[in-house]
């Protein structure tokens, strides 16, 4: 059999493929600006011409047309014969009023404080200095604390990504046997609210820093607040006891190995033998294959000292150091996976 070596079979030459990867930042910036300008929101369920969109957002019409045309080339908008544009399903995902919206990510990714830190990546790899800290002169979380607008944009994306991940988690794990579920570092309670709504037999404990759990509106929105206690504290010091299932969602990827073990040890101290623990993170494949976690790992490197994504084997090592036995890993319909462990 003769191999098909036609251009359509072998794809672009390596130089073109690498060039496309390098230039991928440009479509990202384009879509970030489209999200920031709220163009898909203005278009909504109808079709709008660039002049109408420019008037609605207070922008320069000739350039509005150019960015809408570029968005159409990416499949986010579709141009009609009369010169107007409508949203495609991809455009709907950039609207703020649609389920599963990722508009907040588009806005965040287009913020200079975020993408400028990536400019320090090569220097950071050489020196081991966190690129964000090198560029901005402060840590990522201190920057958010001192810049309310940046913190608001980051929090908006965390809220949206939580909704997407939570739906995938509750669809992928059976919570029906749990009696008391403790969400360690659970933020305002969005995940716990989703779990309790799926597990009506269970009670919950939401645990995070006092300033974070001052707002638990997700619990109220899901009408589960009467089944949930709210506790403020520091998971490096202690974790509430009394649960037969503990959860850690996107907590450990913020910390280096030693700090992760400290957190897991506090969980183990609060849990009797046989108590289950769920780690909900992007779990990297054992081999370098296409997976969003590998690029997210570099994002953690850029932003945060010690933060990283890990393989299942690496989570197993951390768990063993803290007195847990790893039971297995379950993928979800999202990039998140569920690492299940048992206290020994």
For this entry, give a set of tags:
Arc Repressor Mutant, subunit A, Rossmann fold, 2 domains, seven-stranded mixed sheet, three-stranded antiparallel sheet
Short description:
This protein is α/β, with parallel strands linked by helices and 344 residues long. The protein has helices at 7-10, 14-22, 25-36, 39-43, 50-57, 61-73, 89-93, 103-109, 112-118, 121-127, 131-136, 140-146, 148-172, 190-198, 217-221, 257-269, 292-303, 312-321, and strands at residues 47-48, 77-79, 85-87, 180-184, 203-208, 228-232, 245-249, 276-281, 283-284, 310-311, 324-331, 337-343. It folds into two domains: 7-100, Winged helix-like DNA-binding domain superfamily/Winged helix DNA-binding domain (Arc Repressor Mutant, subunit A, Orthogonal Bundle), CATH 1.10.10.10; 174-285 and 303-343, Vaccinia Virus protein VP39 (Rossmann fold, 3-Layer(aba) Sandwich), CATH 3.40.50.
Notes on the protein architecture:
The protein starts with 6 loop residues before the first helix and ends with a strand. It is α/β, with parallel strands linked by helices and 344 residues long. The model has no long low-confidence stretch (mean pLDDT 93). Helix 15 (217-221) links the parallel strand 5 (203-208) and strand 6 (228-232). A seven-stranded mixed β-sheet has the order 6-5-4-7-8-12-11, with helices on both faces. 48% of the residues lie in helices and 16% in strands. The radius of gyration is 23 Å and the shape is globular. Helix 3 packs across helix 6. The protein folds into two domains: 7-100, Winged helix-like DNA-binding domain superfamily/Winged helix DNA-binding domain (Arc Repressor Mutant, subunit A), CATH 1.10.10.10; 174-285 and 303-343, Vaccinia Virus protein VP39 (Rossmann fold, 3-Layer(aba) Sandwich), CATH 3.40.50.
